[in-house]
Write a sequence for this structure.
C-alpha cells in the first residue's frame, strides 16, 4: 500500500520509521505546510507543499494525518476524507461524536474510508475497555496513565513567565493501582489516581517561588493534583529528560457466579519508550485495515471498534489461525 | 437472543450464570446426554436429552457447546453447525485448522455461523498476540499461564495408583516474567517459564515416595518442570483447594525508531477466580456477535480474529464512541 503523510512533526517522523518496518507499505509522499525545500526527511519519499495534495489522489492508497487534535484534524480529516482513505489520531474525547459525523459524511461522498481516533488512548485502550465491558457486564473500569511525558502539561509550564523549558511526567499512584488490582473497587478522586512531577529550567534571576506557585495552582492542569517541581539546568533537562516515554493501563474488575462470588481482573498495560513512534505503529496497522475495507467497496467513518482484528495483520486468516490462535 | 447449552458441566453452569448477567440473552434449553430427569439446573430453561435437539432448530438463536476438546467438540461443533449458530471453546491448538475447516463446511451448508476456540486462551490471549504482532512487527512474544489450576495435570495425578484426589497449580517463574518485562528478550526453556505445585491426597498406607517420583517423572506433564508435591488430607484439599482459579499474561516486546532504539512492552493480564465462569462470559459475548452476523446473512466458520469488536457489545456504535473511545 502506498502511504502519504500530512504533517512532519514527531508523529510524521514516527510514521516514516514505522513504514520501514512493514514490508507491504511504502511511503510515497510527505505533505507539509512549510516550504518543502526546508524539510529534510529520512526516506526517498517526495516532499511537497500541501497545496499539491489533490494531484496525488490516485497515487496514494492511505493518507495518514499527523496534525494536532486542537485545530488541525477537525478541519483536515473531513476535508481529505473526500479524496483519500484517511487515518487520524484525533484524541479530544468529548468531540469524537461530532468529528466522526463530519468524517463519515465526507468519506461517504468521496467513496473512501476514514478511521479516526487511532493510537493507544484513544485506540488500544478504548478497545480494551470495550472488550472487557462486553465480557464482564458487572464491574468497574479504571484507566491510569504514565509514567510518561504529557506534552500539554509541559507546554503549559513553558508559557509561564520566566520559564525557558520544562518537562512534565504523569505518574500513577501505586496505592490506588494496587487497590484496583485487589478488586477493592475504590472510588478514586483525580488527586488519588495520579501525581505530577515537573522538571523546569528558568531564566537567570527568575523568581522560583512564584513560578512553583503558578504551576501548582494552575487550574485544570495542576490544581487538582499533588505536584512536585524540580528546578534544573538546561544541560540536565537535555541529558535526562529529552525522551517522550509514556504508557499506562486499562483495568476492568468484575464479578461472576451464582452469588457474584468470583472476582476477575482484566488488565491491559503499555510501557512505551516513545509515545509518537508507538502511536505511529498503530496508525500503520489501521492504515492496512482501511485499505482492505476500501478495496472491498466500503466507505464512511470507522473507529477501532468497527475493524475485524485480522484486517490489521499482513498474515492471512489461515496463517493467523495456525500461528496465533 | 435465545441461548441453548449442550453439556452441563462447569462450563455449562458458567454459561447459565453468565446469561443472567446479560439482559439481551435468555437461556431456553439445556441439552444433556444424561437422563434429563437427573439434572437439576438453576434456571427456568427446559432440560432435554440431546436426542431432541433437532426439534429446537427454530427456537434457539445460538447454541453454546460446553463439551471437551478431546472428543466432544471435534464431533459436535461440525454436527450442530448445520442446524444452529454455534460457539465452542475448542482449545487443542494443533488441531484448530482442521476443526475450522470442518465447522466452516457444515455452517455454510446450513447457512449458519459457527465460531470456534472462544475463551481466554485460545480467545482473548490470541487476540492480544495478534494485535500486538500487527502493531510491533519486530519483537518477541511470550505467554505465561497461572497462577492457576490445570485440570489436565490434576487428572493425570489422580490416575496414579494410591491417589484419591489432587489439585495441580501452574505458576509462572517471577524471574522469567521480569526479564521479559525488562525487554531482555530472554530465550526461555519450558523449565524456566513455569513451575508446578501439586496438592495430593493418598490412600492410607500408600507409598508417598513412589507417588512423588511418579508425578515428577511423568513425561509431557511434569518431567520438563520443577515440580513440588505436598501430601495433604482430604479435608485440607476441600477447604483450601476447591476453587478453579486461573489467569496469566500475554506479553509482546518490540522495537521502533530510526535505529530500533526504542523498546515497547504490550502486556495483557488476566487474574480469574473462576476459569469456567470467565470463559463462559467470553462465550456469551461472542454468541451475541455471531447472532448479529447471522442476522446480516453471513455463514461459515469464524474465530475471534474475524469479529469486529463492537459486535460483542450490547451498546450501539454511537454509545460506544461516546462512552468508551
Amino acid at each position: 500500500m502506498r502511504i502519504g503523510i500530512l504533517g512532519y512533526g514527531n508523529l510524521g517522523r514516527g510514521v516514516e520509521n514505522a513504514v520501514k518496518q512493514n514490508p507491504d507499505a511504502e511511503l510515497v509522499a510527505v505533505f507539509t505546510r512549510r516550504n518543502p525545500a526546508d524539510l529534510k526527511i529520512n526516506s526517498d519519499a517526495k516532499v511537497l507543499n500541501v497545496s499539491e495534495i489533490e494531484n496525488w489522489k490516485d497515487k496514494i492508497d492511505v493518507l495518514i494525518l499527523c496534525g494536532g487534535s486542537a485545530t488541525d484534524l477537525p478541519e483536515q480529516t473531513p476535508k481529505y476524507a473526500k479524496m483519500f482513505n484517511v487515518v487520524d489520531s484525533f484524541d479530544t474525547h468529548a468531540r469524537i461524536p461530532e468529528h466522526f459525523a463530519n468524517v463519515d459524511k465526507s468519506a461517504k461522498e468521496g467513496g473512501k474510508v476514514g478511521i479516526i481516533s487511532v493510537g493507544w488512548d484513544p485506540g488500544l485502550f478504548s478497545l480494551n475497555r470495550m472488550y472487557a465491558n462486553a465480557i464482564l457486564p458487572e464491574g468497574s473500569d479504571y484507566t491510569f496513565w504514565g509514567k510518561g511525558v504529557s506534552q500539554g502539561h509541559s507546554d503549559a509550564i513553558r508559557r509561564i513567565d520566566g520559564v525557558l523549558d520544562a518537562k512534565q511526567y504523569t505518574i500513577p499512584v501505586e496505592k490506588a493501582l494496587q487497590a484496583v488490582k485487589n478488586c477493592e473497587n475504590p472510588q478514586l478522586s483525580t488527586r488519588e489516581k495520579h501525581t505530577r512531577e515537573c522538571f523546569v529550567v528558568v531564566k537567570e534571576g527568575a523568581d522560583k517561588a512564584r513560578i512553583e506557585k503558578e504551576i501548582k495552582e494552575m487550574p485544570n492542569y495542576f490544581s487538582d493534583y499533588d505536584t512536585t517541581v524540580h528546578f534544573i539546568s538546561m544541560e540536565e533537562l537535555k541529558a535526562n529528560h529529552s525522551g517522550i516515554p509514556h504508557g499506562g493501563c486499562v483495568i476492568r474488575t468484575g464479578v461472576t457466579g451464582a452469588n457474584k462470588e468470583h472476582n476477575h481482573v482484566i488488565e491491559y498495560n503499555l510501557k512505551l519508550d516513545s509515545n509518537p513512534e508507538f502511536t505511529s505503529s498503530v496508525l500503520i496497522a489501521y492504515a492496512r485495515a482501511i485499505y482492505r475495507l476500501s478495496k472491498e467497496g466500503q466507505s464512511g467513518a470507522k473507529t477501532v471498534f468497527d475493524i475485524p482484528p485480522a484486517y490489521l495483520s499482513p498474515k492471512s486468516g489461515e496463517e493467523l489461525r495456525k500461528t496465533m490462535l
In short: DSSP finds eleven helices and 14 strands in chain A. The mean pLDDT of chain A is 97. The first strand of chain A starts at residue 2 and ends at 6.
